[in-house]
Amino acid sequence: MDLQSIMQQAQQMQAKMAEIQEQLASKTITGSAGGGMVNVIVNGKGEVLSMTIEDAILSAEEKEMLQDLIVAATNDGLRKAKELGKEEMKQLTGGLNLPGLSNMF
Hints:
Elements: H1 3-26, E1 28-33, E2 38-43, E3 48-53, H2 63-93
Antiparallel strand pairs: 1-2, 2-3
Helix pairs in contact: 1-2
């Protein structure tokens, strides 16, 4: 394999990576906590898009628990988004663990 061929493959992979990142931005993942009482929707880029809270847990006495559930649901959604990104990248690399690529998501 010559250097020109390697460079061409690298450019193709870079273009495919950009395409995957664009596709991930359009995908949504739901993180949940408290048995579904708090749900957070994030996109594949790890951005929080929305949050829903069940009416049953909106009392002032349970404010601390609600805050903890929001954090847990957000982290759950972000973890799932990161996993989705890694799965998409595995498809691009054919399962190879390329240094630097696994840290992108």
